[in-house]
Amino acid sequence: MDPLKIIKVGGNIIDNPEALDRFLEQFAKVQGPKILVHGGGKLATKLAEDMQVPVNMIEGRRITDAVTLDIITMIYAGKINKNIVAKLQANHCNAIGFTGADGNVICSVKRPVKTIDYGFVGDIVKVNPEVPDVLLQNGVTPVFCAITHDNNGQLLNTNADTIASALAVGLSKYYATELIYVFEKNGVLMSVDDEDSVIENINTESYEKLIKDGVIADGMLPKLTNCFDALKAGVSKVIIGNASVISNKNQKYTTLKL
Amino acid sequence: MDPLKIIKVGGNIIDNPEALDRFLEQFAKVQGPKILVHGGGKLATKLAEDMQVPVNMIEGRRITDAVTLDIITMIYAGKINKNIVAKLQANHCNAIGFTGADGNVICSVKRPVKTIDYGFVGDIVKVNPEVPDVLLQNGVTPVFCAITHDNNGQLLNTNADTIASALAVGLSKYYATELIYVFEKNGVLMSVDDEDSVIENINTESYEKLIKDGVIADGMLPKLTNCFDALKAGVSKVIIGNASVISNKNQKYTTLKL
């Protein structure tokens, strides 16, 4: 059986209509079962401005109050998700849009208040892979936005990277799953300013060394730790690269394996 | 096999959070395969006001320009549809939200311009019932909002009554389908101001007589003509009544059969 590819695309592509169109054309051509997970980009901030809703930041983090959750739901699950689905259909990819509430696929708990009340933000507690599995078996491609639910009727804003990783782990019961993060750089870089310095392969051992040597730090550290957690939980491999990774161009990218 | 119930709920319930909660509780309890189709209510107009987008009316009809289509997509497919799905999940009904683009279920053409350019409004040309069918077979309940697509990447605003009817006809290949319109009155009334004057049964013959006698006119005439068209195209029966029709209370309602 073909591996299942779970491909997460970030806000930088969502915010650029031409780049998004090109990406979706390439995504539609990816062979075998696949799932798309997309971030939100800047459209939610734009709508908040148009509605004159103030952005509520605490310690540099955006707080999801009730109005902000509405905005996120409208933008992520409405405008972005449904336009992606329609464009994939135009590219002959039979897509279907999802939040974690649809099919009860991703259940979360509202993040407990410690020092900061993040509002309607969800931490994933359970993935029910049955509905995506039955759709994949029928040649349909689920497209997830970054929203989950708490099983009590509440939608929750949830990190898209984490959704992709949780889906890959949850579906590893049924498929060999590959988790592919498409972002603005060519991969994990030895030298952050040199796009040619892609580290092509990282395993548990070399990962420890890269951390010790200070190559992996800051934002990349929690991201890669999450990737290794996904590998330990059953995901076959994780790929990190720019949009060309999905079209098998002769472009370098980073592959993570245990 | 149980008949498939396709239940369309109108804007008057969508606009009233308590009435919507009660309705969804009752809907969750409906036995057998079922599909919910919901209208939009007044939330789209409210968002247009918040965004200071002018409403564009020609001859009393709202025109769906590009900005209005975005608003409709955000409200219908985002805010309303996803909150309904989350609430149905809380009521132990495994719901999944749909536009006609999802699963390529409902294909439309942009309404041709004759005297009025309605903008991004779609007239349904094809229903592909395969994806809803596979979900129904797996105990999942599709929830449709009033948006379709043209297979070329364009979402289109489409009448919710028509979507319900097209789905009922499309799925009548696989199921005995019952089309249930939930609206603000108790049913088709002999006397428009008397809620006790429900006409409980209408068939082709009595329908002709009711038109001749002037009992059915104005807005009800095209609605009922569409219902009889659905019956002729394979739907088993059409029920028209208030929200209590789905909970089998001893309330009168109207049943249409050929």
CATH homologous superfamily identity of the domain at 4-182 in chain A: Acetylglutamate kinase-like
Q: Which chains have the largest interface?
A: A-B, 43 and 43 residues
Q: What is the CA–CA distance across the termini of chain A?
A: 22 Å
- What is the C-level CATH assignment of the domain at 4-182 in chain A? Alpha Beta
Q: Would you count the extended β strands of chain A for me?
A: 14
DSSP helical segment count of chain A: 8
Query: What spatial order of strands do you see in the largest sheet of chain A?
Result: 5-8-2-1-11-13-14-12
Shape of chain A: globular
Q: How would you classify the quaternary structure?
A: homodimer
Uncertain stretches of 5 or more adjacent residues of chain A? none
Mean of pLDDT of chain A: 94
| Strand content bin of chain A | 15-25%
| Class by alpha and beta content of chain A | alpha/beta
Q: Main beta sheet of chain A, described?
A: 8 strands, mixed
CATH topology category name of the domain at 4-182 in chain A: Carbamate kinase
**CATH second-level architecture of the domain at 4-182 in chain A:** 3-Layer(aba) Sandwich
**Order of helix and strand elements from N to C terminus of chain A:** EHHEHEEHEEEHEEEHEEHHEE
Overall radius of gyration of chain A: 18 Å
Provide the helix percentage of chain A.
25-40%
